[in-house]
Task: inverse folding
């Protein structure tokens, strides 16, 4: 039994091709031309072809040349038309496949490029979000420092107010001491005047009172010395407090300067944060736009893929048509072989009837 795809028509066509090359058709050559089939299958069919071909060559001498030329022309026309159709279908299919493949490559490259751009924008958005978080953290630290400076400023103001109160108290006490000193001086002047007035009248009484007055003067002098020492101490304390007040004022000025600098930094960081927020919004819009564009490209790719599938279906249909056409050609060749056999039999019929005549 012959294998699938190897029949008498295939062997006849291969043998005819080999003979046209000027070589003798043999089993090995026919098998090499077909690329398949066993020698046990090819040998009897090749022998049949040689027998029929030899008879046809000896028996077709009585046929009209016009009939032979017409059959050959019909065969060559059918064969040429079939070859042209096959070549056209192959060329058109190959061209369409190449075009679709090129379009698919372009779409894939564009899709890859869009994907890379989307990844870069997402990375940039992540970096911007990280920088925004760092700026917010820095803003929180600055606000905490600002709160601390404001607390120190309030505390310094309270300390200054307290020192001013102490200075006012010391000034009041100093004025009181001076008032007492002036009163004591006035009193001593009055006493001395009185003593002068009474000196002439009561010289004896004055002598008796000298000791007492001396003691009072000594006590008053001691008190005056103590008052003067207290005044000096108060003056030193006043000077010290004034120096502390000046230092606190300098500290307050420094804190105010730092506060202004921190406020400017806070303003600049807020402006940067707003700018980053605007950039983030812009990047988000770009991502949305690219996502839409990517979706459109994906839809376009799907449409091209559907087109490719349709073209492949058409290609399969054309291949099926080609197979059908090849089958029709084989049938036509078989019919031709049968016609040749009938012609051979018809040519033999007169030869057999001639002796009877």
Result:
């Amino acid at each position: 039994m012959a294998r699938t795809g190897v029949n008498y028509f295939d062997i006849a066509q291969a043998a005819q091709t080999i003979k046209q090359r000027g070589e003798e058709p043999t089993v090995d050559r026919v098998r090499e031309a077909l690329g398949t089939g066993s020698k046990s299958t090819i040998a009897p069919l090749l022998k049949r072809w040689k027998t029929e071909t030899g008879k046809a060559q000896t028996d077709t001498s009585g046929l009209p040349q016009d009939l032979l030329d017409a059959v050959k022309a019909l065969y060559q026309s059918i064969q040429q038309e079939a070859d042209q159709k096959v070549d056209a279908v192959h060329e058109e299919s190959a061209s369409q496949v190449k075009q679709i493949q090129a379009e698919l490559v372009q779409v894939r490259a564009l899709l890859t490029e869009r994907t890379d751009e989307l990844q870069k924008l997402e990375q940039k958005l992540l970096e911007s979000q990280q920088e925004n978080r760092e700026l917010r953290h820095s803003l929180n630290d600055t606000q905490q420092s600002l709160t601390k400076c404001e607390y120190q400023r309030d505390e310094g103001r309270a300390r200054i107010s307290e020192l001013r109160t102490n200075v006012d108290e010391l000034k009041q006490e100093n004025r009181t001491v001076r008032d007492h000193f002036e009163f004591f001086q006035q009193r001593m002047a009055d006493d001395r005047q009185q003593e002068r007035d009474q000196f002439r009248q009561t010289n004896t009484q004055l002598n008796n009172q000298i000791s007492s007055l001396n003691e009072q003067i000594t006590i008053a002098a001691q008190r005056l010395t103590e008052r003067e020492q207290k005044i000096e101490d108060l003056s030193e304390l006043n000077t010290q407090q004034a120096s502390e007040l000046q230092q606190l004022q300098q500290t307050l000025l420094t804190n105010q300067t730092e506060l202004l600098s921190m406020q400017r930094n806070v303003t600049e960081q807020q402006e940067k944060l707003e700018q980053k927020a605007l950039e983030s919004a812009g990047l988000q819009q770009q991502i949305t736009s690219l996502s839409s564009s990517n979706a459109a490209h994906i839809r376009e790719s799907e449409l091209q893929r559907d087109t490719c599938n349709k073209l492949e279906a058409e290609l399969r249909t054309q291949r099926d048509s080609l197979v059908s056409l090849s089958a029709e050609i084989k049938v036509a060749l078989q019919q031709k072989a049968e016609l040749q056999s009938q012609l051979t039999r018809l040519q033999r019929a007169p030869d057999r009837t001639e002796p009877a005549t």
Remarks:
- Confidence is low (pLDDT under 50) at residues 350-357.
